[in-house]
């Protein structure tokens, strides 16, 4: 029988690579390791990569296995899910993995200017009703700029046509350099060459991703850069809503489009 939530939280409290700060936007709780992740935890100068909304941490752990010369931090507020990846990383003795349990709205409290090289957004909630909750909105991109290196790389992997289309418009509206984009990841030309580095990275499949694939949904992926210069603006376009909210659940409102 699997562990319950309380047992998982007890485990996490003892894990040396898990940092728990489940505070709200209004809480002012200092984080002493801000700007010192390299010195105080990883003890190297390798690039730091964040997975925001990491869920069970499959991508965080999978990328850490592929790239021992990079440091990976999975971020999520749901500790019971995070326990899976955190436990796996601990059992494997992966030295380049950490997890941070906190609200992503306050992510800039935990990293100093230029401390992070890349961000992964894997199957984020599309937040079709509220722009400021979308992880590729100006609300969050402004926060990313506070700790992401100039022209730092952002990866978006999603089943949501709404979030992907919205992010396409964001990239276009703000002139962000787009490196790669596909609306059908597993049927793109690169998929014909499974031994390539990109194929190995993108074929890390999360628990929820496999659900979408089993349901017959296309997986979308894009990779773009976020320069420090320039004011960010929201695209003023109407986007058709997804027909679902999450696995096996229907759309939450009668609206057909949203900005």
From TrEMBL:
Protein name: tRNA (guanine-N(7)-)-methyltransferase
Protein function: Catalyzes the formation of N(7)-methylguanine at position 46 (m7G46) in tRNA.
Residues binding S-adenosyl-L-methionine: 51, 76, 103, 125
Binding site for substrate: 129, 159, 206-209
InterPro entries hit by this protein: SAM-dependent_MTases_sf (IPR029063), tRNA_(Gua-N-7)_MeTrfase_Trmb (IPR003358), tRNA_methyltr_TrmB_bact (IPR055361)
Leader sequence residues: none
GO terms of molecular function: tRNA (guanine(46)-N7)-methyltransferase activity
Keywords: Methyltransferase, S-adenosyl-L-methionine, Transferase, tRNA processing
Domain of life of the organism encoding this protein: Bacteria
Catalysed reactions listed for this entry: guanosine(46) in tRNA + S-adenosyl-L-methionine = N(7)-methylguanosine(46) in tRNA + S-adenosyl-L-homocysteine
Presence of keyword tRNA processing: yes
Entry EC number(s): 2.1.1.33
Similarity annotation: Belongs to the class I-like SAM-binding methyltransferase superfamily. TrmB family.
Presence of the UniProt keyword S-adenosyl-L-methionine in the record: yes
Broad EC category: transferase
Pathway membership: tRNA modification; N(7)-methylguanine-tRNA biosynthesis
GO cellular component, one term: tRNA methyltransferase complex
């Amino acid at each position: 029988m699997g562990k319950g939530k309380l047992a998982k939280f007890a485990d996490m409290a003892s894990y040396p690579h898990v940092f728990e700060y489940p505070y709200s936007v209004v809480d002012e709780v200092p984080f002493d390791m801000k700007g010192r992740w390299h010195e105080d935890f990883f003890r190297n100068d390798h690039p730091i990569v964040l997975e925001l909304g990491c869920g069970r941490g499959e991508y965080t752990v999978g990328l850490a296995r592929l790239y021992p010369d990079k440091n990976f931090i999975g971020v999520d507020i749901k500790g019971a899910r995070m326990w899976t990846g955190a436990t796996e990383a601990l059992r494997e003795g992966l030295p380049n993995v950490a997890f941070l349990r906190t609200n992503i709205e306050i992510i800039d409290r935990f990293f100093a200017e230029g401390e992070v090289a890349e961000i992964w957004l894997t199957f984020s909630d599309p937040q079709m009703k509220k722009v400021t909750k979308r992880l590729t909105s100006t609300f969050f991109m402004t926060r990313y700029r506070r700790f992401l290196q100039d022209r730092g790389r952002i990866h978006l992997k999603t089943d949501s046509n709404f979030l992907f289309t919205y992010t396409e418009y964001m990239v276009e509206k703000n002139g962000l350099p787009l490196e790669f984009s596909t609306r059908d990841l597993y049927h793109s030309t690169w998929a014909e060459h499974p031994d390539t580095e990109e194929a190995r990275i993108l074929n890390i499949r999360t628990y929820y991703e496999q659900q979408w694939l089993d349901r017959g949904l296309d997986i979308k992926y894009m990779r773009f850069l976020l320069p420090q210069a320039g004011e960010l603006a929201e695209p003023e376009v109407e986007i058709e809503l997804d027909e679902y909210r999450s696995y096996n659940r229907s759309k939450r409102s009668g609206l057909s489009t949203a900005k």
